[in-house]
Amino acid sequence: MATIRDLKKDINSVLGGIIEAVYIAEQSSNQEGSKEGSEIIDKAIDTFDSLIAEVNKKDVEDRKKHLKGVRQTLEKEATQLVDRVNKLA
């Protein structure tokens, strides 16, 4: 079960880092509270909620394969969010 705990920590860390990066980018460009930044933060929170829900699913056939898919989804979503953050700055 340590891999599930690690996956949850990774989800929290990655998406939390993206939210923090939005705040830093907004402060550095004097655009605090921008619409684009808020959309990125909202998307990060929605992604967090959906990924945690997927990790907590108990009725999956192949748990290991399912968790691997969750990790791949995290990587894909995080990459897209980071690209959007980079456009903010």
Account of the 3D structure:
Helices cover 83% and strands 0% of the residues. The mean pLDDT is 91. The chain has 89 residues and is an all-alpha fold. The longest helix has 27 residues, at 2-28. The chain contains three helices and no strands. It is elongated and about 50 Å long.
Key descriptive features of the protein:
mainly alpha
Précis, in short:
This protein is mainly alpha-helical.
- Describe the largest sheet: none
Count of strand segments: 0
Give the count of helical stretches.
3
Task: Give the amount of beta strand, in percent.
Answer: under 5%
Structural class, from secondary structure content? mainly alpha
Oligomer: single chain
Report the span from N to C terminus.
Answer: 39 Å
From N to C, what is the helix and strand string? HHH
- The averaged pLDDT comes out at 91
Broad shape: elongated
Helicity level, as a percent range?
over 70%
Q: Low-confidence spans: pLDDT under 50, at least 5 residues?
A: none
Using only C-alpha atoms, the radius of gyration works out to 15 Å
